[in-house]
Amino acid sequence: MKEGVKKIVYVSHTNTSLNSRFEYIRGKAIVEDLVRKSGISYGIAKPCVIYGDTPQESILINNLAYLLRRLPIFLIPEKGDFIV
After folding, report:
1. pLDDT digits (tens, 9 = 90+) for 4-48
2. Which DSSP category does 34 fall into?
3. Residue whose C-alpha is closest to residue 82's, from 10, 73, 52
4. What pLDDT is attached to residue 55?
5. Integer CA distances (angstroms), 73 to 15, 22, 67, in order
């Protein structure tokens, strides 16, 4: 770790497991383990969606969040039209 880092805040997944069949979930578990072993003060946020929390939903939400951060506009289909 870089000198001067005082705290790590990592956004993970609610159901991480090193044995998950989903690479995304398994990767989150690996990073959580690395953060815990780093010796630096840390916080791990595990947000979830309101209606269930499957690995597929988590990956979908992560991808949508990525697009929202990267694209200047985000189209939402509604009754054949698009809302910007």
Report:
1. 888 888 888 878 899 998 888 899 999 999 999 999 999 988 876
2. H
3. 73
4. 64
5. 31, 30, 9
Report phi then psi at 8, rounded to 5. Answer: -115, 130
Containing H/E element for 41? strand 41-45
Backbone angles phi, psi at 14, to 5 degrees: -65, -30
Q: Residue ranges per domain, the chain? A: 7-83
Residue 53 CB partners (closer than 8 Å, separation 6+): 14, 15
| Residue 49: C-alpha distances to residues 41, 56, 58, 73, 79 (Å) | 27, 11, 8, 23, 24
Closest CA to 53 of 28, 16, 18: 16
Residue with more model confidence, 30 or 74: 30
